[in-house]
Design goal:
Blueprint (H helix, E strand, L loop, with lengths): L1 E2 L2 E2 L4 E4 L6 H13 L3 E4 L10 H6 L4 E3 L2 H8 L3
Length: about 80
């Protein structure tokens, strides 16, 4: 079943924000639970190379962050 753009049971979200942050809680945690997705928790996105293992090990289908995180990822080799 597809709920909007999310496919039930097929979503894998990389959570690089703390779950007490409203964006992480609402967009990733609650939305992911609604469609039966999986959440991969990144203990620390600093430095951005810490996220590399998650991208290599899991098929991440969605990922949210803040501007400084995306800017740092753009210059990461």
């Amino acid at each position: 079943m597809t709920t909007g753009l999310l496919q039930e049971g097929n979503e894998v979200a990389l959570v690089a924000l703390p779950l007490y942050h409203i964006t992480a809680f609402s967009l990733i945690f609650i939305s992911g639970l609604t469609v039966g997705g999986h959440g991969i928790l990144a203990p620390s996105p600093r430095p951005p190379s810490n996220l590399k293992a998650a991208f290599e090990k899991y098929r991440i289908t969605w990922f949210t962050g803040i501007n400084t995180l995306f800017a740092a990822l753009m210059v990461e080799p």
